[in-house]
Amino acid sequence: MIRIKDTTLLRRYSLPRKPTAPTDMHTTHRSRTLIRTATIALGLLAAGITFAAEPATLEEALLGGKVSLNLRARYEGVDQTGLKDADAFTLRTRLGYTTAAYQGFKASLEFENIASPDGDAYSQAGLNSSGAGKAVVADPVGSEVNQVWLSYTTGATSLTAGRQRLVLDNARFVGDVGWRQNAQTFDAFVLQNKSVEKLALTYAYLDRVNRVFGHKHAQGAWKSDSHLVNAAYTGLPYGTLTTYVYLLDFDSAAASSCATYGLSFAGTAPVSDALKITYRSEYARQVDYGSSTLDYASDYYAIETGLAHKLGSLALGYEVLGSDHNVGFKTPLATLHAFNGWADLFLNTPASGLRDLYIKAAVSLPGEVKLLAFYHHFEADRGGAGLGSEFDLQLGRKLYKSVTGLVKYAAFDRATTTLPNVQKLWVQVEYAF
Question: In which domain, by residue range, is 198 found?
Fold first, then answer.
């Protein structure tokens, strides 16, 4: 998985209301363009490179790789106003193989299966007719190729082409939705460079978004003509400065097409040997883009500060997703479960926007148990109407060398009848090899 370290200064600046959309291309033509571009880039990277030592043979690289196995068994129960309770028992199995590097090249293939002893005990996001009227658990059963990619690395530059996971910063805008049994992946090529000291540059072209609903779902895959640019600088005294431009254009989800320009700063400052202040701030401006027929321009800003000690941490945060012309700020590629409450009431930003005032605490308990808790208070950004509050609690522990256990609970209490009351419970055991 490609991941850029979570970094992020609250700062407003003027940006164009609506950038010029890229020229529309037929999907098959775009796919050929992606393959040609990736091939050319690989050739340019490889050209003229002299290796300091004789590399392993191709056969040794193919046979000397690493097998990966991940098993994640989970129970998820959902009690939601207006729907029948859902009881989802699922097992996710991932089996993969990544070759050893050969003259800078490396390849990986990963298969994934999600099974359930009773797939009709919950709604698989509308895929099973027997789940009608029941609460949704977005873990549909099925099998797929989860990842298949080829990478080339030389010096401080790497290129990865194919189906892959991609997480940028704290996953607020681009993530792999790792909480769900079927993670989000991208058919893409990703170019990264760290030639300048303490500066990490990332460019990604996304040809297709493979979403958590699976390939059988009508919204399981989005055809894409999207560009991501991210630059993170870690050379500042007390934190990392990140700037980004995300130009998202989706043929099959035009309303989610948008252009986002942002800046963030995150870091820590020591108070004593055992105590430090933590802080993170971010601002982004978003406008309609590409295939979108909407006309809006909205803002996002977030600030969080707290204290961290070896025994735990405490933080207070405030996040706002704005609204314009009755269109809420969009984050279609985010790891949404990690934000605005684990009950997942605000996976899509309300038309009136969203304000989230929250406090979070993490504590190391006896027996190597890790506790994480949140309290959220939600309001509409436009008008300030109360939406509700939520309490989240998680207990996790490493059970054996490669086995972890987790119990997690979320309870959303509505302040308006336009939203449901929701309670969710998870019990999970995961093995990773």
Answer: 2-432
